[in-house]
Design goal:
The radius of gyration is 19 Å and the shape is globular. It has 17 helices and no strands. Helix 13 packs across helix 15. It has one domain: Triphosphoribosyl-dephospho-CoA protein (Orthogonal Bundle), CATH 1.10.4200. Helices cover 70% and strands 0% of the residues. The chain is mainly α.
Length: 334
């Protein structure tokens, strides 16, 4: 594959993955093609999906340069690329924070995809995951600073909360940038500290294990049996949700009781475990492949939608989009 074609393949895989994820319906509690939220519409997510393109191009080019020994893996600038992607999404619509988690996950994945193809002549899941893990483990303190800036620009202070302990600097702390650089705290270090209470952070330090081994696996198994990309998308979402309680919901619920984000997620997980249990029940009924499963799924969606935006499994959506991108990078056609 020529360089131009490889970059285009990675870009289109990212954009299509994000668009397919938000189009999946019904994904309980989320914006999808038949459901808007009061301040965020389906079209906002489509706009953000397209806006990711130029940043994905840049990330893929960095991966290509690493594979050709033109730059060291630590010089990729993951943080700068994430910040650029978050800014591009924000500029594309007025619907708020739609793709922060996707930006955090897609940038190292796009870089890894280019590196993998140049080194191996193809993109396979195992090598792709290994390269994504290597890229995250090679990040720098400046990457951490720029990701902090991206997170702050995309989120309200209320949503961020405060993390206690001896780990990553508090996002409220105006001295965070200086401390990160002075202490040599890398982006990997920051994500490792946050991994116990944030699933996207845990994905970034664990080689995107849930995206590859739960989401991608479920997507491909369901697609191969149904040949229906929407069914595969929704079932991937449900499988992830059934295995991994959504930390976006847990954080939203818990922050109503404490401003400490770590404690908030612990409280929220206990309150919302029924959501994961319901997702598992829907899958046991057959999900979209049976009348009983589909009826249960629509009921689940209506229940979460009725509870408000705090009950939208946004982290699950981010991991589902990543699973879709993996499938597309590895050659999925539908």
């Amino acid at each position: 594959m020529k360089t131009k074609d490889l970059i285009e393949h990675i870009r289109s895989s990212a954009q299509l993955a994000a668009a397919l994820e938000v189009s999946g319906w019904p994904k309980p509690g989320n914006v999808h093609r038949t459901k808007d939220h009061h301040d965020t519409r389906y079209e906002h997510f489509l706009a953000g999906s397209i806006a990711l393109g130029s940043s994905i191009d840049a990330a893929a080019m960095k991966g290509l340069m690493v594979a050709k020994n033109q730059i060291h893996v630590s010089k990729i600038g993951v943080g700068r690329l994430v910040k650029r992607a978050v800014s591009a999404v924000a500029d594309s619509h007025n619907g708020g924070n739609t793709h922060l988690g996707v930006c955090l996950l897609f940038i190292p994945l796009a870089t890894a995809a280019a590196k993998t193809h140049i080194e191996r002549g193809k993109i396979s899941p195992y090598i792709l995951q290994s390269n994504a893990n290597e890229i995250m483990r090679s990040t720098t303190p400046m990457d951490a600073v720029e990701v902090y800036e991206a997170i702050i620009s995309a989120s309200s202070l209320k949503e961020l909360g405060k993390a206690d302990g001896q780990g990553a600097p508090d996002l409220y702390d105006k001295e965070a940038k200086r401390r990160i650089l002075a202490n040599g705290t890398t982006l990997f270090d920051v994500m490792e500290e946050s991994a116990s209470y944030d699933t996207v952070a845990r994905e970034l330090v664990n080689g995107m294990d849930v995206s590859f081994k739960v989401g991608y696996r479920e997507f491909m198994e369901t697609f191969n049996s149904t040949h229906d990309v929407n069914t595969a998308t929704v079932h991937s979402f449900l499988r992830i949700l059934s295995k991994v309680p959504d930390t976006f919901i847990a954080r939203k619920r818990g922050l109503k009781k404490t401003c400490d984000v770590k404690k908030a997620v612990e409280i929220g997980r206990e309150e919302t475990m029924w959501i994961s249990e319901t997702a598992d029940h829907v899958l046991q009924l057959g999900g979209l492949t049976t009348k009983e499963g589909a009826a249960s799924l629509w009921e689940f969606d209506m229940k979460l939608q009725s509870l408000g935006k705090d009950y939208s499994p946004g982290t699950t959506a981010d991991l589902t989009a990543t699973a879709l991108m993996i499938a597309l990078l590895c050659g999925l056609k539908f």
